[in-house]
């Protein structure tokens, strides 16, 4: 879109929205991968017990949809900028917590290997080179997403 008209607002907005929310979806995939890795190594070394809840059980029931007011007036971009900074800061904090919890899990797994599932398939999988490379790739992806999020917070803050 910006190729045809570099001053068009639609292409710019599409780009900035994808750049802002894209890493959240990538981190969701990494969280899902970690849940499978925990099953491979065994959940015994987790400090936090996994729980399953649905959005239906945790949200209040309401029959009225939220009211959204739209306006065609041009307003200051500081409110939107502050919302993006707050969201990205929240993402950085959550990612740091995820890194701490994951590091703790792997250190405990190394310290107490006898508690790992000992089926032949899981032992063979944990020892495979491809699996070890995929763990390294997930760790690198997490660090790069963290780096990118910190950079975006600084960039949006005017730094």
From TrEMBL:
It is found in: Membrane. The chain crosses the membrane at residues 12-34, 83-101, 130-147. Keywords: Membrane, Transmembrane, Transmembrane helix. It is a multi-pass membrane protein. The keyword Transcription regulation does not apply. InterPro entries: RTA1. It comes from the Eukaryota. This is Uncharacterized protein. Signal peptide: none annotated. The keyword Repressor does not apply. It comes from Pseudomassariella vexata. It holds the Pfam family RTA1. GO terms for cellular component: fungal-type vacuole; plasma membrane. Its main location: membrane.
